[in-house]
Amino acid sequence: MSPRSEASGHAGEVFIGWREIRRAAGRFGLMTGVIALMSFMVVVLSALTGGLQQESTSAIQALPGTGLAVQTDAGGAAANLVDSRLDADAVAAIRAVDPGARPLGIVMSGVARGGTSSAVAVFGRDGADPAAASGVRIGPEAASALGLGVGDEVTVGGVATRVAEVSPTLEFAHSPVAEVPLELWRQVAHRDEVTAMVLTRDVEGVAGVTTAVGSARLDLIPGYSSEHSSLLLIQGLLLLISAVVVSAFFAVWTGRRLPELAVVRAMGAGRGYLLRDGLGQAAVVLGAGLTAGTITGVIIAWAVSGTVPIQLSVVGVLLPAAAMALLGMLGGALALRPLTTVDPLTALNR
């Protein structure tokens, strides 16, 4: 091919793709809108997943140490952080291996004043917070709901104490955390056994005890694994559906274009030329749809973040968008396969 012919070919390649988009603007616009809607849902769902995860796990993620030791249940698995019970013997056995291990008590209860109460997850720890050593540390939401300030009398699970501190708190299983000294926690929980031990090193071989290290600690939170897995599954299905929709659209569109493309093929256009033309159209549709949907999703998620648990991050926004782009282009490429095998004479005589 001469330089002039090659330049003409590249110009024609761009011209054909854009000409068809302009000629069928309604169809391409509808497809772009569908992709924008899907990317919007994926971005918002990703932000919601992050927000719900933060609401459920932030208190456990903030714990010091390397892991948690909990009771082994009857099935041989780790008991969750509501059902686990470690008695004095188990605590002593753990401390024999890890002298720096600290007890942790967790119980779902409530903070009350007068006839008003607020549900909380009560965390009991030894020396965890000097400011709360003589009372309870609660979050500003609970304090506002109950009209509490530092020094006010309050009951935690029916046990009278005082508010030692009001400051932003973390959350456990979608409940705000109220921190109290371990001895006060035992009164609230009505038991001597602690829930878990916060470890500073690996602890193995302790009878009746199972350890969870790193992100495995989050699986000990009641309901977290099923909730998080369900949301991730929905995201995955949306990504898969987007690839199928793009593939179906371009499969139908390619079938309608075959006679016209056969003429281009008969004029000497190569298979690579036709494939690049089709992929270029797919890239334009995907790019426009993903951009519009992602921007809209970020704006809407930010707007409702005050009332809905939302966590926006660069990775949480760009990763789903990149996955949709990759799967969409893959689906489009599969749908465009007839372009690489089209026979001019056969296509023209359809």
TrEMBL record:
Keywords: Cell membrane, Membrane, Transmembrane, Transmembrane helix, Transport. The chain crosses the membrane at residues 28-48, 232-253, 274-304, 310-336. It is a multi-pass membrane protein. It is found in: Cell membrane. InterPro entries: ABC-4/HrtB_transporter, ABC3_permease_C. The keyword Membrane applies. This is Putative ABC transporter permease protein. Coiled coil: none annotated.
